[in-house]
Amino acid sequence: MSIDIDTARKVAKLARIRVEEADLPALAGELSGILGFMEQLNEVDVEGIEPMTSVTPMRLRRRADVVTDGNIQTQILKNAPDAREGFFAVPKVVE
């Protein structure tokens, strides 16, 4: 798939990056190259191959799913610049 300059301009706008008009042809070429690599990946036969979550086959350690309050409120609030009545105190931002 080939990306033209207008599409590259639109992608830059959507990504909220400023690209000079002179740099748009290079960006279009790079985006076309990326899409070419993605098309190559689509040609790989993955029939019968299970998806991987990691490159090493290991199970993740899991903790017991128990609801607790943590009992660490005082430790957490020690990091707060301003804490009142057991909560973080922040400046008012809505008038």
From TrEMBL:
Pfam families: GatC (PF02686). Allows the formation of correctly charged Asn-tRNA(Asn) or Gln-tRNA(Gln) through the transamidation of misacylated Asp-tRNA(Asn) or Glu-tRNA(Gln) in organisms which lack either or both of asparaginyl-tRNA or glutaminyl-tRNA synthetases. The reaction takes place in the presence of glutamine and ATP through an activated phospho-Asp-tRNA(Asn) or phospho-Glu-tRNA(Gln). GO terms for biological process: glutaminyl-tRNAGln biosynthesis via transamidation; regulation of translational fidelity; translation. Its EC number is 6.3.5.-. One of its GO terms (molecular function) is ATP binding. Keywords: ATP-binding, Ligase, Nucleotide-binding, Protein biosynthesis, Transferase. This is Aspartyl/glutamyl-tRNA(Asn/Gln) amidotransferase subunit C. SUPFAM superfamilies: Glu-tRNAGln amidotransferase C subunit.
